[in-house]
Amino acid sequence: MPRWAIVVEETTGSGDHTRWSPRVLAQVVGTREHAMAKLSALIPTFIPQHPRLPGRRVLLRDGDTYLLIASGWADDYHCVFRVWQVVSDSDHPEIAETQSGTG
C-alpha cells in the first residue's frame, strides 16, 4: 500500500531568521482518501508557530490543498497543507520497494 505524508509549510523562526519551512505532521499507509481524511482531522487543532497571539483563523480549500490564514495582533501568517506520496526516504529504504508499481 502507498505511504502518504501530511505536510504543512509555514513561517518559522523570527527576525532575520524567518523562513518558510515544510514539516511532516503525520504519515498514513493506505489510500490517498485515507490520508486526506487524516489531514482534515488534523487541521482544526493545528497550532502554527506564528502568530504567537493568534486571533482570527480562516481556513480555505482548493481541491486537495488547504490554506490557513492566522491573524495576530501585528501581522497575518499562513500555512499550506498538502498530502504527498512518500516515494523514498533515506532513513527507511524499504519504503521505495513498497512504492514501486503504484501511481
Structural summary, described in words:
By secondary structure, the protein is of the alpha+beta class. Helix content is 17%, strand content 43%. It is built from two helices and five strands, in the order E-E-H-E-E-E-H. It has helices at 32-42, 94-99, and strands at 3-12, 19-29, 57-62, 65-71, 76-85. It has a five-stranded antiparallel beta sheet with strand order 2-1-5-4-3. Strand 4 and strand 5 (76-85) form a beta hairpin. The model has no long low-confidence stretch (mean pLDDT 87).
How would you describe this structure in keywords?
103 residues; alpha+beta; five-stranded antiparallel beta sheet; 17% helix; 43% strand
Percent of residues in helical segments? Answer: 10-25%
Quaternary structure state of the chains depicted: single chain
Q: What's the rounded overall pLDDT mean?
A: 87
Tell me the major beta sheet.
5 strands, antiparallel
Secondary-structure element sequence? EEHEEEH
Strand content: 35-45%
Ranges where pLDDT stays below 50 over 5 or more residues in a row are: none
Instruction: Let me know the number of strands.
Output: 5
- The main sheet orders its strands as 2-1-5-4-3
Structural shape: globular
